[in-house]
């Protein structure tokens, strides 16, 4: 019996773009060789079962007492059992039994479990509370035990067997259906349907049920396999089918009795079971993967492996599936409402980049281009020829909307690009050391010690099962080789420095005990542990409330002054740039449009996009009649209007 | 911590109560009377009534339940219909073999399962991963009793490394006890381990895909530490869940494979009681099994609380 | 210049009665620890405000302030624990368990997540036609026509009708959501962070669209947001929520010109501004405010409300800043307007 690894996750995977309508799922399925083999095998077994009387050389009850327990002969390719039955024929007819019992019991399980789960999930409240208790209770009884009890009460027989096995799996279906229904019920579009006035019944049948179809199919496939195993076990124990009906389990029972002298008798039925169950399991897995789009084709795997070898990242290899998707999303969308103008159609870039590079840059990015290697071989540019510098004690803002490539730029500096994404050209130097092309060990010497990073989502960025102190002590010990005690003291100092009150006490607390702003301060402390020269903030305040955001920004500015760090502040928020940055660089679809000191940029933007952005931004300190939009700055042909 | 234990116990005990009610009421689901089943062909209405009175089957249900439950609390589970022996004694006699088998099986399952799961979870997509995961797919498909048969044939009959009939009570000879346990443990453990391995792998991949790995990497924490220290601990909760489920499944499977290894455990007891419709015995085994499962789940819930601070009661 | 309210095409109504009248609203959530013990937390406490026809009321607050919950209570998606909500004179509590269809026509919603609010398996046109069908609009052909009209109104084409959500951008999907909300000709639309998840360049388009539609049809908006800039632009009147309580409300321009409550002031001070001018001063002000708050609460024996970084004074100038900044007035440049409701 398997614990199903299919759960609500299959139905609620993120990225609606990835998830399947049946069309996409079917397409994916066709490219999964293992699943196709499984489908073929299942089909073969079904055919054998259906045409058993035709295919089997002997009838199931044909006995040949002169030829008992023989090995393979011409007349009996797989030998005979202790009553002279032909093993091969028995095997074939048993396939029938297996499929019938399995199919019947899965049907019973669904008939009981699906409505049960639906009611619990949709109605909630007391129905759910009570029903969940019932399901929990069912857990206390091992599956086969339930089968034993039912047979004890009702006796032997095919229908009883089907009912018993069905009962065993019914709560599994119930649980799954309940979980998916609960998840769907909470979804925004179900709520929207309510607001539009759609009736409950409509919502269940129109919205929720279709989302159940896929996982149900997966679960059913897997449980067909399990049911066969259970039936075999019960028949093995002589509790299942009556003796005159051939079954693989029964054949194994006979084989067990003659195990000493005829050990090979166990092979045919055993192999039959393994092959059948395997086929069903692989089928279930295959449907699951097709639905969630998790499996990559062989070509995709090859392409991404090649890219991974070239890329400087290593941890990324672990994040293959997730970041693959992320990289695809970073590809500039061409479905925007406004026509997408080419950034460099206005004047030459030199004219736009007005401020001279900082005289002593700590971090220097020169002509960096980042590309993504798509599974179909296409190379997509994410960032094109970007050059920036950041000086000691300076805050450089990297401003861009989603898809502008700003995050990729940050990751490239850190060497944490996802697989399939790599730096195509250019160089990044940090205090004189070249970063592009370094291997993992080389990057580790830099990360934390020269470069610190704070990412966007405070809670998600800390390990939930380790204390905050633990997560501070680790980098401290790595970079400074301190003893545990010394590191703990220093960790408390760091927490104090970032404004966490009662620092020493809070070291032993867990991330969930910190509010968003506090957790982000902890993340800053971790970033500062190695005393880096450059701190990169990757949308570090975007998920915070406005008041918390200003606190954290003020903190960063204070730290900049006291520690003399260079800071790169990546954001999509103009206001954040205005409040906290000394110089601002504008990124748009992977290209650097303009770099200037913040006052000049806001006062006198050079590039039309910058002007458009500034004009379109409603802020709390001024009022406009009508907000201009990007379209106001672009001609019908997609050319920027220079004002 | 103590709070956590008490809290979980508070859940487990009512569960046990409800389970016992259910178990008790099983007898009422049977069509016909066990008395008739015992007497067989020679049953007459009078003899049936006589046997029923003898067995106390003619008294009202609530009275019988109270009596039964009372007996339960004293460790008295009644008397088996057929053998006339006290159920508790019969269970106690068979329990050690089953427990030993499950203990061994769980050990193998956890070691193999978590090991394979962590290895494959930390290097998904590699050849090692594909080979090992393929192995787990096989492991789930193999009927355990068949595996047992093959293992005995190979290792006991052909190679003679291990005995065919393996059970030796611990009290008699610990070493032989352990030796006899090898094959059953492997049988139980390899299939149970496959389940745990798959769950562990999924949990590892998910945990390593979380953003905190980026933060730690960016802070300079070495990769192995991130994988094995942070990744594993974060993956432990689903793994614990998988272990709990596997334990329940293993009890059932152990009943089936007893026959293969000629182990005098609860399984054969269950078998005879099912065939003979010997309800006190059926109830006894079911109750005992359910208690074991609930107890293990209790331990696992406590384990959750230890690992995941948010699972602790406020 | 105060924006004019367009009462729109509403039929004969008593002008004095507001469209939506919320009085002393309490909304509580059950937070279940275990299934046996359920604790409730009151998320909205004693909130009172009203919205007139054709007006936009901004409900401002940070996360956890209860603003979304208020919107849900009005949509009858969350239970009212205390107080009343009156829509067009009718107390919602009298409507019974099942929300009448007329209410589901008069009150609509546009959410923060445009893709999430549409069924991924249906093409987007269906969102509109399903709503029309439920409300008994003519036959299929007529519904299709109305859907086309609605799409055109929000700036989408006929071709968009048959696309799936996964094939459209965030801005386009939000237009679909707006079309769906407005095709039923509602009187009130609850916009719950309707532009917060959109790119800056798309945001301005959607804001303009919403305002144009209001101008044309006289629909009222309850505009829930955390973004002060957006609310300043869109709302005629606004209310500030903090931890479930409405601590200040009034005409938008008045509140921005002269915020009465300390929290409103700190919110304004913390809001990123449109221009770096005067930022040193703002930073110094924030620091002073935090120090003041810390001293006050420390003096009272409690722990500091906000952590103040232990760093040198914020007034130090940053190295890369050019010397040419003129200190222009950073505040609002319009005269203060006396507020009709004098409540803080």
TrEMBL record, chain A:
UniProt keyword annotation of Cell membrane present: yes
TM segments?
34-56, 98-122, 134-153
Keyword annotations: ATP-binding, Cell membrane, Membrane, Nucleotide-binding, Transmembrane, Transmembrane helix, Transport
Q: Which residues form the ABC transmembrane type-1 domain?
A: 95-284
Recorded superkingdom: Bacteria
Family, similarity comment: Belongs to the ABC transporter superfamily.
Note the SMART domains from the entry.
Answer: AAA
Q: Does the keyword Cell membrane apply?
A: yes
Give the lineage: Bacteria, Bacillati, Actinomycetota, Actinomycetes, Micrococcales
Spell out the protein name for this chain. Dipeptide/oligopeptide/nickel ABC transporter permease/ATP-binding protein
Membrane topology according to the record: Multi-pass membrane protein; Peripheral membrane protein
Instruction: Supply the Pfam families for this chain.
Output: ABC_tran (PF00005), BPD_transp_1 (PF00528), OppC_N (PF12911)
Q: Which InterPro entries match?
A: AAA+_ATPase, ABC_Ni/Peptide_Import, ABC_transporter-like_ATP-bd, ABC_transporter-like_CS, MetI-like, MetI-like_sf, OppC_N, P-loop_NTPase
Instruction: Pinpoint the ABC transporter domain residues.
Output: 365-614
Localization recorded for this chain is: Cell membrane; Membrane
User: Which organism is this protein's natural source?
Assistant: Demequina litoralis
From TrEMBL, chain B:
- State the InterPro entries in the record: BPD_transp_1_N, MetI-like, MetI-like_sf
Which N-terminal stretch is annotated as signal sequence? none
Q: Where in the cell is it found?
A: Cell membrane
Q: How does it sit in the membrane?
A: Multi-pass membrane protein
**Which UniProt keywords are given for this protein, alphabetically ordered?**
Cell membrane, Membrane, Transmembrane, Transmembrane helix, Transport
**What is the name of this protein?**
ABC transporter permease
Asked whether the UniProt record includes Transport among its keywords, one would answer yes
Instruction: Give the protein family.
Output: Belongs to the binding-protein-dependent transport system permease family.
Q: Which organism is it from?
A: Demequina litoralis
Starting at the broadest rank, the lineage of the source organism is: Bacteria, Bacillati, Actinomycetota, Actinomycetes, Micrococcales
Membrane-spanning residues: 12-30, 97-119, 131-164, 176-197, 235-261, 281-307
ABC transmembrane type-1 domain sequence ranges: 95-300
